[in-house]
């Protein structure tokens, strides 16, 4: 995200089987109205999107192999400006794009150098926001296209701005660290993809797509040879036929109705089409696949909880693959600040942490009336009140009241949890009212404030 507008470089990488040779062959990549053209041959390439920052490096080889096994020819990946330049204004767009292109050239990764990159994309979905910028949007797009082409990558550049284009996400992954946005946006970027957030196959989707990719590949020769002839033999029915003078023929029979099955008469035969489905006929006769018929077995993963012993204080003692430590309540290091009142969290932490402890000590007094003692504080930029009613002589309880702009608050009194509150995506602010019991003398209050993602600002 840069200035409220997405900017990414997308690299489309052709997956190739490694050959034990030091020889590399440069490929010529172009395109026409029908397909990508590699070394003069039109190709139908099955592509899926995997964003490398949203999975760990250890996962990358497994994800690539599962993608190949699922029938993908190509992986599309983003180069994230905000990831490589986390501090604004260190590099403007042209200089950053040129830097990435130069890095790719140095490693000879473009197809024109014998590498796997066959296509690049500049900008991302700008068509969704260009109306906000008026004539300046067109000027910017022309400049971006000219700038990208001037970098001489030897492969085509494209732009993505079709609002109705299908999502090609093959593995979504996870938004790590501070990249989620917010507030209250989950870290998952799973998108119900064929390979799930954890790198596991999502069945039956992965297997069904594998069958679909195989069926489409059987039609490749006819599809790249000619434009289709499209007819409509009835309501909600469509027949697309790729047929050449040499006898090649592939057909796609579609029932776009969502409620009723249909029968299509094609080539002297009848074909039953379930609602909202396509039958693929690589030879214009036999059905290789109907998209409504799933042959892959469904799998439903589930999480199994493990109980912890009360005396286990760390993952080392529990012998677990997970890592955790038992953190003491309150401020426990030398980075504490002593200030009157409460500091605003985000400016104090500089947004380097989601967590901030506030600690104070309060001396219990004995009153003979029902008067409240009010301590005025500042909490997350909002003037707030924390109201403490001390013990009366009749032994009634005290109420701790905290107002916060959000997003989560845990209150501890004398080392024990007194209460918690959390906001939500609609109302991030929280208000805590917790009955507490004070002890004679000094009482310690520890408030743990949490942010759950921050709203992305231009």
Secondary structure tally: strands: 24
Number of helices: 8
Taking strands numbered 1, 2, ... along the chain, how are they ordered across the largest sheet? 8-7-1-6-5-9
Arithmetic mean of pLDDT: 82
User: What fraction, in percent, of the residue positions are helical?
Assistant: 10-25%
The backbone outline, from C-alpha atoms, is elongated
Please tell me how large the radius of gyration is.
Answer: 30 Å
Largest sheet: 6 strands, mixed
Low-confidence parts:
1-6, 16-23, 162-166, 366-395
Q: Terminal Cα separation, in Å?
A: 9 Å
Q: By helix and strand content, what is the structural category?
A: alpha+beta
Percentage of residues in strands:
25-35%
Question: Overview of this structure, please?
Answer:
The protein has helices at 60-69, 81-84, 93-106, 135-149, 205-218, 220-225, 315-318, 345-349; strands at 8-14, 29-31, 36-38, 41-43, 47-50, 74-80, 117-122, 157-158, 169-171, 229-231, 237-243, 249-255, 262-266, 269-273, 277-281, 289-290, 355-363, 373-379, 382-388, 398-404, 408-413, 416-422, 430-436, 442-450. The chain is built from eight helices and 24 strands. The relative contact order is 0.10. It has a six-stranded mixed β-sheet. Strands 10-11-12-15-16 form a five-stranded antiparallel β-sheet. The protein is elongated. By secondary structure, it is an alpha+beta fold. It starts with 7 loop residues before the first strand and ends in an 8-residue tail after the last strand.
